[in-house]
Specification:
The chain is of the alpha+beta class. The protein has 11 helices and 8 strands. Helix 4 crosses helix 5, helix 6 packs across helix 8 and helix 8 packs across helix 11. The protein is elongated and about 85 Å long. The structure holds zinc ion. The site of zinc ion has 7 residues, from strand 1 and helix 8.
Length: about 350
């Protein structure tokens, strides 16, 4: 299965990749290296893998091995060198289900997908420089702190939709009058201001789609409750690719919420069922960080036939320069625009953030 991956850069330079569901995991049938069975195909697999791993990560990328299927001195010492950097038992051998092959799968970006694929620029940089950036603890702390705020705005959005719900039917919206209906009026005004719902002669299907999207966002966020957020913010994770820092503030795969945990982002090789936040987001205001996260969440919970993408292709984040293009969208486009979902949630939850 193939779907598009959307990454949203502030400057509007959008990065497109593809998620793949069938993952190639590094696998060997017998042990390779010192005292191993050393079957030719297995040795070749390990030699190629070592070549794909940067020297910094213990691989042989800087001085590639000849992929000849023969476990000679060079191959064996490359295995030992890799082990010294990545595992505790240094025996010069890679076993089919051992710690070394598991570590190699991780070094290769999770699933052994060829991350050096052409075009993405995500491969090993010229001069053998690692394509990975060290994990910045500040980003992890930021993500954990951000999660609470994201939940606040998503709940606030859902609350506003609950208030509006009794007044949405298959005919043009009639706003209720009277002091007791003030909250519902405000909710309907908010829906109008962001999604133009008041312009529709039958707002019901659009409202249903908006509601489903935010409910799914709430469900997606609950995934993070299952694990200790300090150890594993499993939905939002830090970006590890240097190149993505220049391309995006965050990236994810459209419909990632519905993909199997084995699906990977093509060319990047990382799980497609996550939202990746870039370090550059640290420099932004908190409102902007929350907004970017909700924008990605909207992509993440959307899927065919209801795809939420970037309806505005140039300047895909809402700012004073791009505002006219966002305003010009038709109501049916607005309910498919990730940035509009971010805007609605931030407006709904703004007062609750401090
Ligand atoms: Zn986007």
């Amino acid at each position: 299965m193939e779907i598009n991956c959307l990454a949203c850069a502030r400057d509007g330079g959008c990065f497109e990749a593809t998620a793949i569901d069938d993952v190639v995991i590094l696998r060997i049938s017998g042990s390779v290296g010192a005292g191993g069975m050393n079957k030719t195909p297995d040795v070749s697999i390990i030699q190629k893998a070592l070549n794909d791993i940067s020297a910094e990560d213990g691989g042989a990328a800087a001085a590639p091995l000849k992929v000849d299927g023969i476990a000679g001195t060079l191959t064996r010492s490359a295995i030992t060198r890799y082990q010294q950097k990545n595992v505790t038992i240094i025996d010069g051998r890679v076993d089919p289900n051992g710690p070394t092959i598991r570590a190699m799968n991780e070094s290769l970006g999770g699933g052994g997908v060829d991350i050096v694929a052409a075009g993405s620029g995500a491969g090993v940089a010229k001069g053998g420089k690692s394509p990975f950036q060290p994990l910045d603890p500040k980003v992890v702390t930021k993500i954990v702190g951000l999660l609470a705020k994201i939940r606040v705005v998503i709940r606030a959005a859902n609350f506003q939709l609950d208030l509006a719900s009794p007044f949405i039917g298959t005919k043009k919206i009639v706003k209720p009058t009277g002091p007791f209906q003030a909250p519902a009026r405000l909710a309907l005004n908010l829906l109008d201001a962001v999604f133009d719902l008041g312009k529709l002669s039958n707002p019901s299907p659009s409202f249903h789609n908006i509601r489903t999207a935010y409910k799914n966002m709430d469900v997606a966020l609950n995934r993070s409750f299952e694990t200790d957020p300090l150890i594993a913010p499993i939905l939002f994770v830090p970006n590890k690719f240097v190149v993505m820092e220049t391309k995006a503030a965050a990236y994810t795969s459209a419909g990632g919420a519905f993909l199997s945990s084995k699906a990977r982002l093509k060319k990047l090789g990382v799980p497609a069922d996550r939202i990746y936040l870039c370090n550059n987001l640290l420099n932004e205001s908190e409102i902007h960080q929350v907004s970017v996260a909700v924008h990605e969440l909207a992509h993440f919970v959307s899927g065919r036939p209801f795809l939420i993408d970037d309806q505005v292709k140039t300047g895909r984040m809402l700012n004073s320069a791009s505002k006219p293009s966002f305003d010009a969208l038709k109501p049916e486009q607005k309910i498919r625009s990730a940035e509009h979902y971010a805007f609605f949630a931030v407006l709904a939850g703004f007062r609750r953030l401090d």
